[in-house]
Amino acid sequence: MSNDNLLIWSAVSQPPKEALKTIGAGRLKGKSDINPQWRYKAMTEIFGPIGHGWKYEVSKLWNEPASENQVFAFAEVKVWYMDGEKWSNPIPGVGGSMLIVKEKLGLHSSDEGYKMAITDALSVALKTLGVAADIYMGRWDGNQYNLPAEMISDDQIANIETLIIEVKADKKAFLNFFKITDLKHMDSSIYDQAISMLEAKRGK
């Protein structure tokens, strides 16, 4: 598969720090909220002004009852981008928000419920193109990349196995100390520590 398939994805996957805000409450507390304007800017940088290089259509708006007389607002959108000389196939997205929400003083009606539902639906459609993908994949928090840990190699596993036998170490206790169930799950960053700990048992 050609890397050209990821050209759009790679170009729009990482929002800048200033486009992010940490969510302070609710089920998503601690996660990053993305400024919608950055999404639209990213699309414009890649494809051109909206209406020429990319566009969207609100295909459906509706509401649904929720518990305690609250009401959800939902939106369905379709997004297109210019693919050479023609428009792409439509990219769907469905999003939601609260239209009537229960607060401490009672029910509150939001005049932005549908607008927020449309914004949410656009985020759903655009993220399938890769817009802000690194946030959704948990790889980027605005400050640093959270890359998967690199595990120790087969040779390093063999070295540890040999040392455990030589120094007559308790392998189960050794694994428990590092909170792993198998040596293949050991992070390479603690390999030297593990070797040093086993070597220290030689003189005992």
Describe this structure in words.
The model is unreliable at 142-147 (pLDDT under 50). The protein folds into two domains: 3-136, DNA repair protein Rad52/59/22 (Enolase-like, domain 1); 154-199, no CATH class. Strands 3, 4, 5, 6 and 7 form a five-stranded antiparallel sheet that branches. It has a two-stranded antiparallel sheet with strand order 1-2. Helices cover 32% and strands 25% of the residues. It is α+β, with helices and mostly antiparallel strands. The protein has helices at 7-12, 36-47, 113-127, 133-136, 154-166, 171-177, 191-199; strands at 20-22, 32-34, 54-65, 71-83, 86-87, 91-103, 106-109. It is built from seven helices and seven strands, in the order H-E-E-H-E-E-E-E-E-H-H-H-H-H.
Provide the residue-averaged pLDDT: 84
Label the CATH architecture of the largest domain: 2-Layer Sandwich
Count structural domains: 2
Low-confidence stretches: 142-147
User: Could you give the count of β-strands?
Assistant: 7
CATH topology of the largest domain: Enolase-like, domain 1
Provide the β-strand percentage band: 15-25%
**Category from helices, strands and their pairing:** alpha+beta
